[in-house]
Specification:
This is Dbl homology domain-containing protein. Residues 1-157 form the DH domain. It comes from Phascolomyces articulosus. It is a single chain. The chain is mainly α and 159 residues long. It is elongated and about 60 Å long. The protein has 8 helices and no strands. 69% of the residues lie in helices and 0% in strands. The longest helix has 22 residues, at 62-83.
C-alpha cells in the first residue's frame, strides 16, 4: 500500500493515470487490514471467538462498505490492468506464477468479501459443537446472527 501512496503523492504516471485511482482502488484497504490485524491479535491472545466478533462489531461494517463499491473497484482495476504499463506487467506476472494461483489483480478484490461467509461458517461450526448450556452459547448465537446479517446485507447489495 505504501508504494502506491508514495507514487500517488509523486504523481508517478507509470503507476496511475490519475491520482484519484488510488483511493478508488484501495480506499478501504487500510481499514480492512486494521480489522484483520485486530481480529488476529485478539485470537492470538486467546480471546474467545464470540468475544472477538462482538468486540469488532462496528469495525466489521467495513466489509459492507467495501462490498458496496466492489463492482466499481473490479471494473477500474480491470481497465487499469489493460492500459497501465506497470499494472499490466504486474498482472501478467501474477497470472504466470503458481504462488499467486495464477490469479490476476482483480481476482484478489473478492477476497475481503469472501471472509464474511467464512466467518459465518466458523461461528456456525462452533455453535454446532457447543452445548446449549455452555455460557458461551448465547454469545456465539449473537455473534453468528450479527455476521449472517452482515452477509445478507452484503448479498442484497449484489456482491
Amino acid at each position: 500500500m505504501q508504494p502506491m501512496v508514495i507514487a500517488m503523492q509523486n504523481k508517478d504516471p507509470l503507476l496511475v493515470k490519475k491520482s484519484g485511482d488510488i483511493p478508488t482502488l484501495f480506499g478501504h484497504l487500510p481499514q480492512l487490514l486494521k480489522v484483520s490485524q485486530e481480529l488476529i491479535q485478539m485470537l492470538d491472545r486467546q480471546v474467545p471467538v464470540e468475544h472477538v466478533f462482538m468486540a469488532l462489531q462496528e469495525e466489521l461494517t467495513i466489509f459492507l462498505r467495501y462490498a458496496v463499491h466492489y463492482k466499481t473497484y473490479f471494473k477500474t482495476i480491470r481497465k487499469a490492468c489493460q492500459t497501465n504499463v506497470l499494472l499490466l506487467s504486474i498482472e501478467r506476472e501474477c497470472l504466470a506464477r503458481r504462488d499467486t494461483n495464477r490469479m490476476g489483480i482483480a481476482d484478489y478484490l473478492i477476497a475481503p468479501i469472501q471472509r464474511v461467509p467464512r466467518y459465518c461458517l466458523l461461528l456456525q461450526d462452533l455453535l454446532k459443537h457447543t452445548e446449549t448450556k455452555d455460557p458461551s452459547h448465547y454469545e456465539l448465537c449473537t455473534a453468528f446472527k450479527m455476521m449472517t446479517t452482515l452477509a445478507s446485507v452484503m448479498n442484497i447489495n449484489n456482491v
